[in-house]
Amino acid sequence: MANQTDGNGYGILSPIAQNAIRVMRDMQLRSEAYAQAEEELKVLLDDLIIEVQNSKDYIEAVKEAYEIIYKSVNPSFNYDEQFSLDTCYRDIPAVGMVKLTVARKLLLEAKK
């Protein structure tokens, strides 16, 4: 209504809003998990956060953050190799969405 839809219609915006509601509800119900993940990721992504504060591209930083998080679980993980494979052949380490959500949050805060 305030010309903030970027040309997207209800079919695109509805799932985005539903996902945002789920994430916010999860943050309220499991606040301790988010606080713990934030403390861990501040240490793990320290250099990347500083780079974003110094004008590094946010999208590139998110990709690097995901790679760092995946490698913290499986050091031999190769991000580019795995994501070049067809979806059914990918072997991506199991990482909770909490870490990925908090990583994006920390990078967005660093961007401001």
Structural features, described:
The protein is mostly helical and 112 residues long. Helices cover 70% and strands 0% of the residues. The two termini are 26 Å apart. The chain has 6 helices and no strands. The chain has helices at 10-29, 31-44, 46-53, 58-73, 79-83, 97-111.
What's the layout of helices and strands?
Layout: H1 10-29, H2 31-44, H3 46-53, H4 58-73, H5 79-83, H6 97-111
Helix pairs in contact: 2-6, 3-4, 3-6, 4-6
Secondary structure class reads mainly alpha
**End-to-end CA span:** 26 Å
> Which descriptor suits the 3D outline?
globular
**Cα-based radius of gyration, to the nearest Å:** 16 Å
Q: Could you tell me the number of beta strands?
A: 0
Q: How confident overall, as mean pLDDT?
A: 88
SSE succession: HHHHHH
Number of helices: 6
Biggest beta sheet summary: none
Q: Please indicate the percent range of residues in DSSP E strands (runs of 2 or more).
A: under 5%
